[in-house]
């Protein structure tokens, strides 16, 4: 069994201003750097074997800070972990773009299911590279939300910055153990690793679910547009 720790990167200025960030390569701001340093302060210690990140600098910065603080070797970046490309919405205010394009139907937006599929591909490839290890993966809010919502089979609210979620992968069984610091236990067995999609992500889940009011108060941006 391989344990994955999924961490959303720390805050950026785009997060702070509630702009669509997606595949735009924006660095952490001062708050984001502090969030990365504090990410594991209130969590049980895990002897992570390696940290892998998205190639976007906000994720790599977060991963390197956590790795240095907790003596976790940096294993490099992995292109499949990049955030969804929001197309024409990148760099624009969330309220403005959602009003103009209902259902987040932005021109040039990456397909939501394709994003989820490459995320599952990434975790399976990392499981093959690090069988039986504990792998910390630093990526992005929408990608992580898609991965988790597919496995737990229900819509999810936004993933706050610099929070940890846990996923176990053993053979064809996927199990979610934690979501943004809250313990859960939900396991699903797929038919085979050749099955694609492994889990379906509905188009309606492009935006975070408006549920569990108050769970996202630690995220000033109020959304996972990055």
Outline the fold blueprint:
Layout: E1 2-8, H1 13-16, H2 30-38, E2 50-53, H3 57-70, E3 74-77, H4 94-100, H5 112-129, E4 134-139, H6 141-152, E5 164-170, E6 173-179, E7 182-189
Parallel strand pairs: 1-4, 2-3, 2-4
Antiparallel strand pairs: 1-5, 5-6, 6-7
Description:
The protein has 226 residues and is an alpha/beta fold. It has six helices and seven strands; from the N terminus they run E-H-H-E-H-E-H-H-E-H-E-E-E. It has helices at residues 13-16, 30-38, 57-70, 94-100, 112-129, 141-152; strands at residues 2-8, 50-53, 74-77, 134-139, 164-170, 173-179, 182-189. A seven-stranded mixed beta sheet has the order 3-2-4-1-5-6-7, sandwiched between helices. Helix 2 packs parallel to helix 3 and helix 5 crosses helix 6.
Fraction of residues in helices? Answer: 25-40%
Could you state the order of secondary-structure elements as H and E?
A: EHHEHEHHEHEEE
Mean pLDDT: 92
> Care to count the β-strands?
7
Q: How would you classify the helix and strand content by structural class?
A: alpha/beta
The oligomeric state of the chains shown is single chain
Helix count equals 6
Distance between the termini: 29 Å
Tell me about the largest β-sheet: 7 strands, mixed
Computed over alpha carbons, the radius of gyration is 16 Å
Placed side by side, the strands forming the largest sheet appear as: 3-2-4-1-5-6-7
pLDDT under 50 segments (min length 5)?
212-222
Global shape: globular
Q: Tell me the β content.
A: 15-25%
